[in-house]
Every structure is written in structure tokens, then in C-alpha cells.
UniProtKB/TrEMBL annotation, chains A, B:
Organism whose genome encodes this protein: Micromonospora echinaurantiaca
Every Enoyl reductase (ER) domain range: 19-331
UniProt keyword list: Oxidoreductase
Protein name: Enoyl reductase (ER) domain-containing protein
Any one GO molecular-function label of the UniProt entry: oxidoreductase activity, acting on the CH-CH group of donors, NAD or NADP as acceptor
Length: 333, 333
């Protein structure tokens, strides 16, 4: 009997908010690795906001997902069969072919991870791309300096919660986060944020002003829209915004009309800078050293929201877009 | 008989577009300089777009103009009486008290200029703040490098025409300008712009795409609105926008709704940076050396639109906001 592999295909491109109908669970045969390849049994996969953009058929920084083909994204799993030097059955590897139970991975795009050094899931967030996004965006893109006030949106998410904690560890005098529920706000306080608010409780501009009456120096944007507009108003002279994501508008079908106060960038000499973590690989060594230390000594806390079963991966992704996750949204495959 | 001084006061704060009623011509006595002061007979004064912002009663990077008091701004004139060391009657000086025939200037805020080195008016633009704005914005804020493609709006204005010419002198491979009339477009071509268009001729995005089919690397923004939105679409990976002004919206009474495509800053890793020339004084020495050389050898061309008589200064300013100037708008006092 041939072993069965289950994977999630893109069945149709969403218009606006995606739904379960855009995905299809497909059974295939478990593939056989050729020379230089590994067969990996995925154990955890990541769902990330940027995947929404890849569901549109538009040119972007990553190619769009193909219809009737498996989605992809970060995953960790165990090597079942290795046809590549340097990898053996039983090794844990990090790679880019999630959304399937078994992945046929070119050895060059897999990286061994040590499950004894840190939980394997952390290589998908705190110690992985998510963590480097927070670290590089805050320190390199926004150039945060000790004594500054930092505001981060989607602060209870995987990136945002690290941004706030790294800011405190690097000497920010005040860190403010926004999130989408009272429970998340409470969690942010436990993680060491100086102030946090639920953006449903009133206009973001007012909530931010109450949390940072003297303004902010750095804004780490995961949201766009009202949050960015409020941040532009709150930024002080020579303030910087690192623009990481605009999840508030990923499902918009009409172009959004914010921020209306962009002219403030002149008088306040603000810098708004978009970035992708892929440009900041040179920081990886330094990042891993620092972050591993913080994890070991308990300076960094993190949350995971884990959904079980590849068949529920679409629900996990949709839940992420609706903000149902605390910390990193993962699927246990 | 006491000599009469005429000056322009702000009679009321404009709502939206200013008009002649917002200004008042007032006759006063010619003042007497105290110790450390100069009495200056102004000969030319500058009208600049940023003055519109100062007519509103809002906190900004410069304090608002006061009601029933003279406006101020860059001017050059001759010293009539000096009560300060280092200045003598007959000296030409540059200072900040325009909008009046006679100015009582603290010696510390006056700078002698040499009418034999360059026409005195050029200290109000090519060799002055206008020139440094173009130079610093293009080279320091946007970090233009040789071989890049540069787009500048309000390109037939005092700042814009210098931005385009400095870009060519510094090795830009292609320079594109937008302006508000066919005559201005023709002038831009004569000044060495590789392409120019009248923004009335169609959507800015289309005109820019036709002029720069492969995109742009640097945008120097004097306009905001549609121009900024079009530039964000046209900017290539790692592109930069130096945001100098947003004249298109200075007279808006409703917040403007552009740019709707701001999310592109992420995937393209764009930087949008507002700036004020006042932060770039450290470049002044280098700027004056280079610009003087370019002026001497004829590498830089410039235009002046001169209005005669202090009583017509409000009209000159209103004409500037309507784009009626070619190059620098000046008032001969």
C-alpha cells in the first residue's frame, strides 16, 4: 500500500476576504526523493499574513500562489529519507514547503534545527523569520535608540509581541501596543508593555494619545489604515515608521484612503520605510545570538496558537486574518 | 518730513485659498536702528509656498504669522544705516524680514552678499535656501546615485528646476519633470530634462509611466496628492521619495485622501522621508562651492518671475500658489 500525503491547494483566488471555498484538501502519493533531496514529514507549519497577498494574481515581491497547486510557507519536520549529504533520517529541518504532510525538499533550501536547544516550533517564529522581522524592523529599519518611545500595532501577534519586548530589552523608555481584545491587552501588560489598548475601544488616535501623551519616536506598522494615520500624528520630530505589514487592508477590494495627514512628514521630518525581512539576512547571526540568549534567560515570552490537522490549515489562516490568534498561529500537521 | 515705510500685514487668516482681502498694505514710519541693528532698504523679497502654512493658526515647524503684523520671509537689500560692527551703509545683505520696504534687522541674522559675484536676486534662490533645498533633498535625503532615474514635480518652479539640473550634473541617467503648462514643459526640455509633461494632459500616473516606462528610483515631491501616488506606483525596488512640499493640498479645507497605494512601500522597500532645509545646514559650504561653480560655467540655468512693488506682493504670492511663476517668484520692492 502506498502511503498517502495530504496537502492544501488553492482552489480559487479570493476576492476580498478569503473563505474555506478558496482551499481544497487533496490526497496524493507520498513522493520519493531524488538525488540531493529529502523527504520530510512536516510536523508544524506556519500561516502568515503575507500569504494573503500571494493569493492574488499580481506581481509582487514573491510570486503568487498557483491555482490547483499546493500552497507553501515555513514548516518544520523530520527527515524520513535523505538523498543528500549532511542530512539523515530523524533530523529536524526548517524549510519552505508547508501546507502538506510530506514535503520533497531540496537539501539546499533546508536547514537543520536542534530540538534540544529550543522547542522546534520556535524556529518558525521567535528564532525564525518572525523574530528577525521584529528585530531588523525595529533596530535597523526604524533605528530605535535607547530612551525612545515605541508604538507597535497588532502587538499581540507573533511579530508585534517581539517588537515590544525587544524594544524594552534595547532600552526603549516606553512601549505601547494595540491589539484587538481585552485579553490580548492584558497579555501585553504581562509581557512588559508599558501601555496597551484595544483598538475597538475608540479612535486609534485618541487611544494612542492617551497612552503616549508626549508622542512617539518609532512606529512599527503591521496594520496600516487608521493605525498608521494615528501614528503619523503622534510621531515626534525625526520620528520613524517601519512599515512591515498592512493587514487591515489586505482584504480590501477598494483602495484605502488613509493616511490623510501625510503632509505632516515634512514639518516633523518623518521617515516612513517599508521593508522585507529578506533584505536583512546580514543581521541573522547577531539576531540568533541575542534572541537565543533572551530565550534562555527568560527575557522573552511568547505565545502560540496551535490548530491541529492539515485539514484545518485554511481555518487557521482565516482565523489569523480575523485576529483570533494570540502570538504565533501554527498548524500541527 | 519722516520717511514712510510700507509693509504688508496679515489682515485675516485664509480658509482654503487665500485672496487679496487676507492682506493689508500699511504705512508706518521708517524705524531707527538701535545698537547691533541695521536699517535695510529691501530691494527684492521672496514669496514661497511654505508661507501658506504660516497663515494658519496651527503649531508647525515655524510659528504662524501674527494677525495685524507684517509678514516675513527672505529678502535682500542695501544697508542704509548700520549700528553694528562689520556692516556699513551700502552693503548688500540677505535676511529674513521681507514683506516691507525698510527692515530693522539684528546684525546676527543678516549675511553680507557680494553683488559682483552673482546677481543679488540669486541669493534668494539658486545660491540660497531654495538651492540648498534642492541640493540637500536630492543628494542627502533621497540619496540619489549616478545612473538613477529621477522624477520631480513642480519642476518649473524654483526648487524643482534646480533638482532636475543637479540630478543631471550628478549623473542621473534620466530626469523627468512635471509642470502646469506647455510653456513650462518646453522650458524644462531646454534646461536639460530628458522628459517633461503637463500634468493637465492626463492622469499623472499615465504620463509618468509614458515618460519613465521602466520606473523611477527617486521622487522629489513638491506637490503631494496625485503626484505622490503616481510616484509610489512608479518607484522601483529600494526607491526613495524626498518629501519637500505638498502644494496641491495647502489650500484644502478637507484632509486629502491620497496616496491610496501606500502599501506598495513594503514589497518595494520604499522610503518616504519628509525634510526641511534647516536640518541640512552642514551641507551649506559644499553646496555654495558647487553651485557657484555651476553658475559660473553656465551648467545651471534659472528663471525669475519678478513682480514690481511691495503693494503687489500679495498678488505675487497668490500667483505662486496658482503656479503662474516660471522659476523663482520675486517681488522687486
Amino acid at each position: 500500500m502506498t502511503a498517502v500525503n495530504r496537502e492544501i491547494h488553492l482552489a480559487s483566488r479570493p476576492q476580498g476576504w478569503p473563505s474555506a471555498e478558496n482551499f481544497r484538501l487533496v490526497e496524493t502519493e507520498v513522493p520519493k526523493p531524488g538525488p540531493g533531496q529529502l523527504l520530510v514529514r512536516n510536523r508544524y507549519m506556519s500561516v502568515d499574513p503575507y500569504m494573503r497577498g500571494r493569493m492574488n494574481d499580481v506581481k509582487s515581491y514573491v510570486p503568487p500562489f498557483q491555482l490547483d497547486a499546493p500552497l507553501d510557507g515555513g514548516a518544520v519536520g523530520e527527515v524520513v529519507t535523505s538523498e543528500a549529504e549532511g542530512f539523515a533520517a530523524g533530523d529536524w529541518v526548517l524549510h519552505g514547503l508547508g501546507w502538506r504532510e510530506y514535503a520533497l525538499v531540496d537539501a539546499g533550501s533546508a536547514r537543520t534545527v536542534d530540538p534540544d536547544l529550543a522547542p522546534v516550533t520556535t524556529y518558525l517564529h521567535v528564532l525564525g523569520m518572525t523574530g528577525l522581522t521584529a528585530y531588523a524592523g525595529l533596530l535597523e529599519v526604524a533605528g530605535m535608540k535607547p530612551g525612545e518611545t515605541v508604538f507597535v500595532s497588532a502587538a499581540a501577534g507573533a511579530v508585534g509581541s517581539l517588537v515590544g519586548q525587544i524594544a524594552k530589552l534595547k532600552g526603549a523608555s516606553r512601549v505601547i501596543g494595540s491589539a484587538g481584545s481585552a485579553a490580548k491587552v492584558e497579555r501585553l501588560r504581562a509581557l512588559g508593555f508599558d501601555a496597551a489598548f484595544d483598538y475597538h475601544d475608540g479612535p486609534v488616535r485618541q487611544s494612542l494619545k492617551a497612552a503616549a501623551p508626549e508622542g512617539i519616536d518609532v512606529y512599527f506598522d503591521n496594520v496600516g489604515g487608521d493605525h498608521l494615520e494615528a501614528a503619523i500624528s503622534a510621531l515626534r520630530l525625526h520620528g520613524r515608521a517601519a512599515i512591515c505589514g498592512m493587514i487591515a487592508q489586505y482584504n480590501d477590494t477598494e483602495p484605502p484612503a488613509a493616511p490623510r495627514n501625510l503632509a505632516l512628514v515634512i514639518g516633523k521630518r518623518l521617515t516612513l520605510r517599508g521593508f522585507l525581512v529578506g533584505d536583512h539576512g546580514a543581521l541573522r547571526g547577531q539576531f540568533v545570538r541575542e534572541m537565543s540568549g533572551w530565550l534562555r534567560d527568560g527575557s522573552i515570552g511568547y505565545d502560540e496558537t496551535v490548530v491541529d490537522g492539515i485539514e484545518h490549515a485554511p481555518e487557521a489562516f482565516l482565523g489569523l486574518l480575523r485576529g483570533e490568534n494570540l502570538g504565533k498561529m501554527l498548524v500541527r500537521v
